[in-house]
């Protein structure tokens, strides 16, 4: 590889951690971001990175000015903060399509996409994420694509809007009552360090992939929502009262989400952290912040 990589989503939690690791491994990085993006997470790294805004003119210039060999698309918009359908579509479908167009036009070899393990019609986020994955598959004769079906990741310093971080915050504050669903849904939670390790493993083994590839990424183990919440309560020694069943299930609730990581296992990758270890490290980090 020529070690020139284009990264989207570098100002977010996963993206900023990934960017830091790329730079420590001597990659040359271009970052596409919104003009209004908060770059505080990557301020210390900004001198070593070429930044471009996410409009078509800037993206076109990026590919003209740099010999990009690989794109790692991490940018996403979950829609948790009241964003409109059009904003969610722009972030999860229109924007990456623009990147894909110029990647193909400029003979970029590889596109690593951060997709979702959620079914198509779970919500608007999963709808547009899965539509983009289909676009990648359609164009896979022009660019080798790895579509990472990422499960629920977590770790120190993650956004408080995320489930695990939110639960840790509430329990550290000893909120009297925390209302929850019944909690019987099964989820696969993967620690941030394992996610980063997997991304680099994929990059280092990129020549083993051809065409379009769906690649599930998780811990390979499931736990009920109730189980993970009770574990967080135990680790934090919280006095909060957990009111399971006070919130009804969504009509389209996914009851089991788990990653079949046999492909990655077969190539030689396995996660290093179990759920208890990851949660303890996340709680310890939360304590230091406080």
UniProtKB/TrEMBL annotation:
Residues 5-209 form the NAD-dependent epimerase/dehydratase domain. It comes from the Bacteria. It holds the Pfam family Epimerase. Belongs to the NAD(P)-dependent epimerase/dehydratase family. This is NAD(P)-dependent oxidoreductase.
């Amino acid at each position: 590889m020529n070690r020139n990589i284009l990264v989207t989503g570098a100002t977010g939690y996963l993206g900023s951690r990934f960017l830091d690791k790329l730079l420590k491994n001597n990659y040359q990085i271009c970052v596409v971001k919104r003009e209004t993006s908060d770059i505080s997470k990557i301020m210390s790294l900004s001198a070593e990175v070429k930044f471009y805004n996410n409009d078509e003119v800037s993206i076109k210039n990026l590919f003209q000015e740099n010999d990009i060999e690989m794109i790692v698309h991490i940018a996403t918009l979950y829609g948790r903060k009241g964003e409109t359908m059009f904003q969610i579509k722009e972030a999860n479908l229109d924007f990456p399509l623009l990147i894909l167009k110029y990647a193909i036009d400029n003979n970029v070899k590889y596109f690593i996409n951060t997709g979702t393990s959620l079914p198509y019609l779970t919500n608007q986020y999963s709808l547009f994420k899965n539509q983009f994955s289909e676009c990648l598959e359609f164009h896979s004769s022009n660019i080798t694509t790895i579509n990472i079906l990422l499960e629920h990741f977590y770790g120190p310093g993650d956004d408080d809007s995320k489930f695990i971080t939110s639960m840790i915050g509430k329990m550290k504050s000893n909120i009297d009552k925390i209302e929850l669903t019944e909690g019987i849904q099964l989820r696969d939670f993967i620690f941030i360090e394992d996610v980063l390790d997997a991304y680099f493993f994929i990059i280092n083994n990129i020549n083993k992939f051809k065409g379009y590839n769906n690649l599930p990424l998780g811990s390979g183990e499931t736990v009920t929502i109730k189980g993970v919440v009770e574990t967080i309560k135990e680790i934090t020694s919280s006095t909060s009262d957990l009111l399971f069943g006070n919130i009804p299930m969504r009509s389209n609730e996914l009851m089991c989400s788990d990653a079949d990581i046999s492909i990655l296992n077969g190539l030689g990758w396995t996660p290093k952290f179990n759920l208890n270890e990851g949660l303890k490290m996340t709680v310890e980090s939360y304590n230091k912040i406080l």
